[in-house]
Amino acid sequence: MLARSFAFLFHIFLLCGAFHGQALGQADSASQGGDQGASEVRTVQVGLYLSPPFVMEEGEVYTGMAIDLWQEIARERNLKSIYRVYSDLPSLMGDTEQGKIDVAVTNLTVTEDRALKVDFTQPWFDAGLRVMVSTNQKTNIGDIFHGLHRSGLLTGYLWLIAVIFAATLLFTLFDRRFDAEFPSRWRDGLAESFYSVMSIVTSGRVERKNLFGWVGRIWGGLWLVCGVAVVSYITASITSVMTSLALTSQVNGLQDLPGKTVGVLAGSTAQESMVRHAIKTREFKDIEQAVSGLRSGEVQALVADAPVLAYFTFQNPGLGVRLVGKLFEPDKYAFALPRGSDLTRPISIEVIAAYESRLIFNLKEKYFGPVR
C-alpha cells in the first residue's frame, strides 16, 4: 500500500516537471520571438523640405528641430530613414498623398485641405504667420503718383499743364503780332514762348521784352505773382503727399498689406492666407529667395511662418530686414503620412512621449533660445 502511494506521487511529480518544462520552453520561445520582432529594422522613405531651423542641410548631414525630433522617434521605433529632399512644398505633399514617401518631415502646417489628402500625426509645434519688411522702406514714383491721384492733386496738375500750353500758344500769337524781332517760324516761336512761360512758373523771373511801358511792367509783375503761386502750390502739394505716404505707405503689419505685392513661399499656408485676404502675391521657392526679393524691391513685404522668419532674422542681423506686427492665423506643425498609414499612430505616441519627456521643450531651447 505504501509503495503504491509512493509510485503515484512520483508519477505526479514527473508530470508536473514535464508541464513546467513545456511552459518554460514556450515562454523562452515567446521571449525569443518578441526580441526578434523588436530588433527588426524597418526602412522608411522620408521626404524633407529645407526650412531653417526645422530642416537644414550641413554638408551631407541634415539637422534642425524637426530632424532631431524625427530621428529620436525613428530610433525608438527601429526605423531606418532614407531621406529625399524636395525643392517645394507642393511636390512634397503630392508624393506623400500618392504614397511615394512614408512620412513628410518639415514645419508642415496642419490644415483642413491637407488633412483630406494625408494623415497627420500629433502636432508638435505651435506657430502662426508674421510679416517681414525691409528696414529701408522707400517711397517710389509709383507711390507718389498714386498718392497724388488719390488726393485729387493729380487733376490739378493736369489743369496746370493745360494752362501752360495755352499760355505758350497765347504768348506766341501775341509776340508774333507786336514784337518785330520775334522768330517768324512757328516752331521757333513756340519754343521761345514755352521757355518764357516755364521760366515764370519755375523761377518767377520774367525774361520777356517790355513792349508797352508801364502797362507791360504791371503785367510782368502779375506774371511774377502767378509764377510764385504755381511754384508754391507744386512744392506744398508734393511735400504733403510724400509726408502722407511716409506715414501711411509703411508696412507695420497685416493691416497694411492690401495694395502691396507680398512675397510668399509656393504652396504655403501664407500663400493661402494672402489669397483669402485678396492680397497680390509673388511666389518664391525658399526663404533665401524670398528675402532677396524683399531686399531688391520685388515685393514690399514677406509673409511666412513666424518661427522661420524669426530664426532667419536672428541668424542674419546685417541683411536689413525685420519683423513687424503681431502673429496672426495661429497654427500647428505635424508630420504627414499617406492616408491609412500604419505608422501614424505609433509616431503620434512617440510625439506625445517627447512632450512628456521634455524633449520638445529642450529642442525649442536649442534652436530658439530660452523658452519664456
From TrEMBL:
This protein's name: Transporter substrate-binding domain-containing protein
Matches recorded under Gene3D superfamilies: Periplasmic binding protein-like II (3.40.190.10)
Domain Solute-binding protein family 3/N-terminal: start-end pairs: 43-371
Annotated TM spans: 156-174, 214-234
Keyword RNA-binding belongs to the record: no
Localisation per UniProt entry: Membrane
UniProt keyword terms in alphabetical order: Glycoprotein, Ion channel, Ion transport, Membrane, Receptor, Signal, Transmembrane, Transmembrane helix, Transport
InterPro entries: Ionotropic_Glu_rcpt, Iontro_rcpt_C, Solute-binding_3/MltF_N
Species in which this protein is naturally found: Microbulbifer celer
SMART domains the UniProt entry points to: PBPb, PBPe
Domain Ionotropic glutamate receptor C-terminal per the UniProt entry, residue ranges: 43-370
Keyword check for Oxidoreductase: no
Membrane-topology annotation of the record: Multi-pass membrane protein
Stretches of the chain forming a coiled coil according to its record: none
Residues in the signal sequence: 1-23
